[in-house]
Amino acid sequence: MSCCFWRRLALVCLLAVGALASLGFGPPVLTDSGYPPLRLDPDAVEALLRVGYRPAITASAATVVDIDANQTLYALRPHEPLPPASTVKVMTALLTLQRGNLADSVTVSATAANAPGSRMGLATGEVLTVEELLYGLLLPSGNDAAVALAEYVGGSETGFVALMNEAAAALGLADTHFTNAHGLDDGAGTVSAADLIVLSRVALDDPTFARIVATQHAYVAGRSLTNTNQLLGLYAGADGVKTGTTVAAGECLIASVTRDGHRLLVVLLGSQDRYSDAVTLLNFAASGWRWRMVALPDNALAWEIGADGRAYRLRAAAVPDVFLPAWQWPLVQPVRVLDATIPLTSTFPVGSLRLMLDGQVLATTLLTAWQGP
């Protein structure tokens, strides 16, 4: 259903909370034929309202995706082709990692050393390792490092750009066209917010890439390098990915935040205040959705009386966490199903735990008996 639907529903429910409370009735309910009514308490109504709210940002295009849930939480013109700025360096780094060797030595050409714009400060004839150049590419966003790596991998920047576009096609990046290895404006290069989500997911699967983009400061090849991504250290869990700024592109940002083992990716293109926009969208996602583990509640459901008259503690087997809008969690019902043919003294599973929402099974895990009185 659309965000507008949920927002209208939340507003109706929020008004109903106060009205019904004043009359002495309980909270509003959601009903569906064939299932018991699901009661929305005031906290759940407020959480529902937050999901329906569309945060205001300055960016021309943006996307927020929970990576593990593979769910888009916010999208603003996600497929609009826009100037990329230095977000293209994610592809430059990815191709280098796929085709190069971190320990290889690269001699810096005059072309690379004289690349305009942001630089790590390379000199003609200087020799650095591929890994050192990757730090120069991804922390200070060095255009000189981008050209040096492009020449190392592709023989020339032109040859490397051809490889970049081949890789983009293989990943299904339909809105993307690369024209250089660094992202400086030329009127022809494009990316989209949705394409950068796909590209960043692939790049972050490489542990070297993930390690470098999460680094705030590094001393590399006699240079003190600082990451241009100011979200690192500013927002809890921030661990990447890339900034970009040009006249045509405006302020761009690919932001990664990992909490409790789950990653959110935010892409902003054409922003006037990328960090404010990023925090707005990250807070929107954090308040509107929740990951939770499947577990037995610490109440009577966790205990069962056996045929011998003794009380046995039940244990739920570990399963992947469940991702839901925050407003739905108060409506989730744990249902315990025990197999009467299996004694609680058995070492085998004695039943299952199901998480139910409005008659639907969200997750199931096995139950075993592991503790007596």
Strands, helices and their partners?
Blueprint lengths: L2 H21 L5 E4 L2 E5 L2 H11 L8 E6 L4 E6 L12 H11 L5 E3 L2 H4 L13 E3 H9 L4 H12 L2 H14 L22 H12 L2 H7 L3 E4 L2 E4 L11 E9 L3 E10 L2 E10 L2 H15 E4 L10 E3 L5 E6 L5 E4 L7 E6 L12 E7 L2 E12 L2
Antiparallel strand pairs: 1-2, 3-4, 3-11, 5-6, 7-8, 9-10, 10-11, 12-15, 13-14, 14-18, 16-17, 17-18
Distance between the termini: 48 Å
What are the secondary-structure elements, in order, as H or E?
A: HEEHEEHEHEHHHHHEEEEEHEEEEEEE
Q: Supply the helix-strand structural class.
A: alpha+beta
> Order of strands in the sheet with the most strands?
4-3-11-10-9
Based on DSSP secondary structure assignment, what is the total number of beta strands?
18
Please describe what this structure looks like:
It is built from ten helices and 18 strands. α2 runs antiparallel to α10 (274-288), α5 (130-138) packs across α6 and α6 crosses α7 (157-170). It has three domains: 3-54, no CATH class; 61-70 and 73-291, Beta-lactamase; 300-371, Peptidoglycan synthesis regulatory factor (PBP3), Domain 2 (Sandwich). The longest helix has 21 residues, at 3-23. Residues 1-36 have low confidence and may be disordered. Helices cover 31% and strands 28% of the residues. By secondary structure, it is of the alpha+beta class. A hairpin with a 2-residue loop joins β17 (351-357) and β18 (360-371). The chain has helices spanning 3-23, 42-52, 89-99, 110-113, 130-138, 143-154, 157-170, 193-204, 207-213, 274-288; strands at residues 29-32, 35-39, 61-66, 71-76, 105-107, 127-129, 217-220, 223-226, 238-246, 250-259, 262-271, 289-292, 303-305, 311-316, 322-325, 333-338, 351-357, 360-371. The strands form six sheets. A five-stranded antiparallel beta sheet has the order 4-3-11-10-9, sandwiched between helices.
